[in-house]
Amino acid sequence: MQQQMNMQQQAMMAQPPEMISTKDALYLTDALSWNLIAMKKAHFFASQCQDQEIKQAIDRVGQMHQRHYQQLLHQLQPSAHVQ
């Protein structure tokens, strides 16, 4: 198990490549869609919730997905990696 975790850590890139494959682009499109849908669903369910504690928890989930969406968009901008 430890060896598998070490291999995963070594496989991570320090920065995204300048060009991505079609398969990577499709995966990124899917990831953006998943986060956008999750964000919208969380917003909807929070608006339907009567319990304030649960509503706040659902709102935090929606905000997390919004942050992930924004991070992906930022990484995809060409100017994000120009130095």
Structural class by secondary-structure content: mainly alpha
Percentage of residues in DSSP E strands: under 5%
Mean pLDDT: 86
Rg over CA atoms: 17 Å
Largest sheet: none
Distance between the termini: 38 Å
Give the overall form.
Answer: extended
What is the number of E strands?
0
What's the SSE pattern?
HHH
Uncertain segments:
none
The percentage helix is over 70%
Q: Please tally the helical runs, counting DSSP H or I stretches of 4 or more residues.
A: 3
Protein name: Spore coat protein
InterPro entries: Ferritin-like (IPR012347)
Organism: Anoxybacillus flavithermus
Overview of the molecule:
The chain is mainly alpha-helical and 83 residues long. It has a domain of 27 residues. The chain has 3 helices and no strands. Helix 2 runs antiparallel to helix 3. The longest helix has 27 residues. The chain is extended. 5% of the residues are buried. The mean pLDDT is 86.
Quick recap:
With 83 residues, this protein is mostly helical.
Give the topology, please.
Layout: H1 2-11, H2 22-48, H3 52-76
Give descriptors for this structure.
single chain; 3 helices; 0% strand; Spore coat protein; Ferritin-like
